[in-house]
């Protein structure tokens, strides 16, 4: 079975900082990797699909990269509204596997 | 605007069956394009995909829950539902429904979630 890991598990950064979150798959998953943002009381939000495609309506400060086993989500300039937990997700036609999440807050 | 809304009891007794419904507005669940998914998040833990259903009725389930899960759809009400049998405290979680977009497969619309506690 494919396992997904994320690092760090949490981070604290200042407004305007560049933030990078890493997601690693236990085997090659091509580009079948998505990123989601979870904030309390809100519906989870798709940010990036297929490793690097920005979902419509998502601010351009969010970007994704990677293929195979190693992926990154980057926030180019952290904003207060970006406080959330971020999850990566491996997808296939018949299953979805989430990473454990990275909690981001403001220093 | 497309929206999903979960509904159901917030408290279920151990060994009983958890039943939740997700109502889709702004479109139709009969579209052959999308899958209709259930996901959960226990407090302090990560997200876990439970399973999904297509308009054709085809379902897929997480292997760890497969023996206890049934996902069904009521197209007349534009709803799909989750049944989880023989629940324990480990099934206490926020339950989300989400629309699954086809290849390269991602979940583009989510509900806000509903909290379910398993307790006597």
Describe the structure.
The complex is a heterodimer of chains A (107) and B (120). Chain A is an all-beta fold and 107 residues long. In chain A, 0% of the residues lie in helices and 52% in strands. By secondary structure, chain B is an all-beta fold. Helices cover 0% and strands 52% of the residues of chain B. Chain B has strands at residues 3-7, 11-12, 18-25, 35-41, 48-54, 59-61, 69-74, 79-84, 93-101, 106-110, 114-118. In chain B, strand 7 and strand 8 (79-84) form a beta hairpin. The radius of gyration of chain B is 14 Å and the shape is globular. Chain A binds chain B through residues 31-32, 34, 36, 38, 41-46, 49-50, 55, 87, 89, 91-101, and chain B through 4, 37, 39, 41, 46-49, 60, 62, 96, 98, 101, 103-113.
Outline the secondary-structure elements.
The complex is a heterodimer of chains A (107) and B (120).
Chain A: E1 4-7, E2 10-13, E3 19-25, E4 33-38, E5 45-49, E6 53-54, E7 62-67, E8 70-75, E9 84-91, E10 96-98, E11 102-106
Parallel strand pairs in A: 2-11
Antiparallel strand pairs in A: 1-3, 3-8, 4-5, 4-9, 5-6, 7-8, 9-10, 9-11
Chain B: E1 3-7, E2 11-12, E3 18-25, E4 35-41, E5 48-54, E6 59-61, E7 69-74, E8 79-84, E9 93-101, E10 106-110, E11 114-118
Parallel strand pairs in B: 2-11
Antiparallel strand pairs in B: 1-3, 3-8, 4-5, 4-9, 5-6, 7-8, 9-10, 9-11
Order of helices and strands of chain A: EEEEEEEEEEE
Mass-distribution shape of chain A = globular
Strand content of chain B: over 45%
Tell me the number of helical segments of chain B per DSSP (H or I, 4 or more residues long): 0
Chain-averaged pLDDT of chain B: 96
Q: State the helix count of chain A.
A: 0
Overall radius of gyration of chain A = 13 Å
């Amino acid at each position: 079975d494919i396992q997904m890991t994320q690092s760090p598990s949490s981070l604290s950064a200042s407004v305007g900082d560049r933030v990078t979150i890493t997601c690693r798959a236990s085997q090659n998953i091509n580009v079948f990797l998505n990123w989601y943002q979870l904030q309390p009381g809100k519906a989870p939000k798709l940010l990036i699909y297929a490793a690097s495609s920005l979902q419509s309506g998502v601010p351009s400060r969010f970007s994704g990269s990677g293929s195979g086993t190693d992926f990154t989500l980057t926030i180019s300039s952290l904003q207060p509204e970006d406080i959330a937990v971020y999850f990566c997700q491996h997808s296939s036609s018949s299953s979805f596997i989430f990473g454990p999440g990275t909690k981001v807050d403001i220093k | 605007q497309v929206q999903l809304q979960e509904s159901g009891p917030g408290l279920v007794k151990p060994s009983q069956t958890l039943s939740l419904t997700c109502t889709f507005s702004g479109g139709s669940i009969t579209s052959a394009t999308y899958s209709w998914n259930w996901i959960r998040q226990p407090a302090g833990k990560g997200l876990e995909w439970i399973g999904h259903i297509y308009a054709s009725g085809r379902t897929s389930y997480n292997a760890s829950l497969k023996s206890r899960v049934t996902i069904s759809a009521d197209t007349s009400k534009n709803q799909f539902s989750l049944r989880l049998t023989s629940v324990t405290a480990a099934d206490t979680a926020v339950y989300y429904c989400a629309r699954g977009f086809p290849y390269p497969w991602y979940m583009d619309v989510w509900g806000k979630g509903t909290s379910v506690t398993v307790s006597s």
